[in-house]
Amino acid sequence: MTSFIVPDWPAPSGVRALATTRRGGVSRAPWDSFNLGDHVGDAPQAVAENRALLRRELPAEPVWLRQVHGTRCVDAGTAARVTAGTEADASFTRQRGVVCAVLTADCLPVLLCDDRATVVAIAHAGWRGLAAGVIEATAGAMAVPGERLLAWLGPAIGPQAFQVGGEVREIFVAQDAQAAGAFVATAQGKWLCDIHRLARQRLDALGIRRVASANSCTHRDAASFFSFRRDGVTGRMASLIWLE
């Protein structure tokens, strides 16, 4: 049976969101089983069948993006110009029934809405996108004061599993000294990175203080989530948000 996560956050009536897990699809190992990524080597027919299963839960086909770890945020409501080949790592919409979506397998999905249910957005935030400003770009595209926005941080690699080099820490600390608190040194000369904390810091700087989290580690929970860091060749989960 297909398994979904419904965000536990105080979003206003009219905002709908969900995140998928790896369970309940038709893909075979190592993409087993609910893989929604069409760029990871899985059989196209299996991906299409999985996406059809997902579509049953949604008001429309998701607006898929070609994610490149950048900061571009597009208007998902302009479907004629936004296709699966559109390079972007975030999208927003003010139109009812338009489904914004990102694919992840360790990176952080950041879902946003305003407190009046007039606009929703979603961002794919790996460390590169975070450092480059994908959250700032996405919130800016929504054109709503930060105090009126709410955020939900979806399943991503946890702070005990996300090991990075010193150069990654230096990038974040150079931008904001408080980012140092999101890194813990290891005995091997590397750093454990808390990507959720980095995201919260950036949301806070934008005035976005109402932030909830899935509190799920994709790397640790192999039964529920795909993890690129853990498995290399693997599937992708989707996070989605729309206005009813």
Describe this structure in words.
The structure is a single chain. With 244 residues, the protein is of the alpha+beta class. It has a single domain (4-156, 207-243), classed as 4-Layer Sandwich (CNF1/YfiH-like putative cysteine hydrolases). The protein contains 6 helices and 13 strands. It has helices spanning 44-55, 127-132, 134-142, 166-175, 195-205, 228-231; strands at residues 4-5, 15-20, 73-75, 90-93, 100-104, 108-114, 120-125, 149-153, 163-164, 183-185, 191-193, 210-213, 237-243. The strands form 3 sheets. Strands 3-4-7-6-8-12 form a 6-stranded mixed beta sheet. It has a 4-stranded antiparallel beta sheet with strand order 1-2-13-5, with no helix packed on it. The model has no long low-confidence stretch (mean pLDDT 96).
Q: Which word captures the global form? A: globular
Radius of gyration: 17 Å
Task: Indicate the CATH architecture.
Answer: 4-Layer Sandwich
Number of domains: 1
Query: For this structure, what is the CATH homologous superfamily?
Result: CNF1/YfiH-like putative cysteine hydrolases
Q: How much beta, percentage-wise?
A: 15-25%
Q: Characterize the largest beta sheet: strand count, sense, and whether it forms a barrel.
A: 6 strands, mixed
Spell the H/E element sequence: EEHEEEEEHHEEHEEHEHE
Tally of helical segments:
6
Low-confidence stretches: none
CATH topology: CNF1/YfiH-like putative cysteine hydrolases
Strand order of the largest sheet: 3-4-7-6-8-12
As a percent range, the share of helical residues equals 10-25%
What's the mean pLDDT score?
96
The CATH C-level name is: Alpha Beta
Distance between the termini: 25 Å
Determine the structural class based on helices, strands and strand pairing. Answer: alpha+beta
The total of beta strands comes to: 13
| Oligomer designation | single chain
